[in-house]
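Throughout our pipeline, every protein is held as a single compact record rather than as scattered files. The record that follows is passed on verbatim for readers who wish to inspect the format.
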Amino acid sequence: MTTAAEPFRFPPEPVRNVRIRHLCQTSCGGPFAIVTLDFEPLPDEEFAPVAFDWPVRDRQRNRDLSGRYHYPREWLPDDLAQALEEGVAQALRALPADIRPAAWCTVTEAVWHEVDSHERGFRQAGAMAVREALRRCGR
């Protein structure tokens, strides 16, 4: 009697500095979303498929430390933060049955623009981050 193979657990090990630059390079309005995420395996499935961590130290200001781009000084607004979380969660729920997501996701950077950033762009950036992390895991 054969048994079914164990599903691939995502992520099997920490995947750090998944940087997504989701930008429109023409003069149209958006999308504009720059995020960096770390994915780590959860110790158990209590919070599966994903739990988020937004470090308090970074919530106090936007991450344009150079001052060149004149981004707003606030951290990511709540609607954009929620959209980013939704994008990651939707991408994890859409994975094939042979991949079992159980990820702790830490947002280490988020840059937005007052005019060009919108929820759709951050939702897409979250999904793109999951795809990039999977690629780094060999999937």
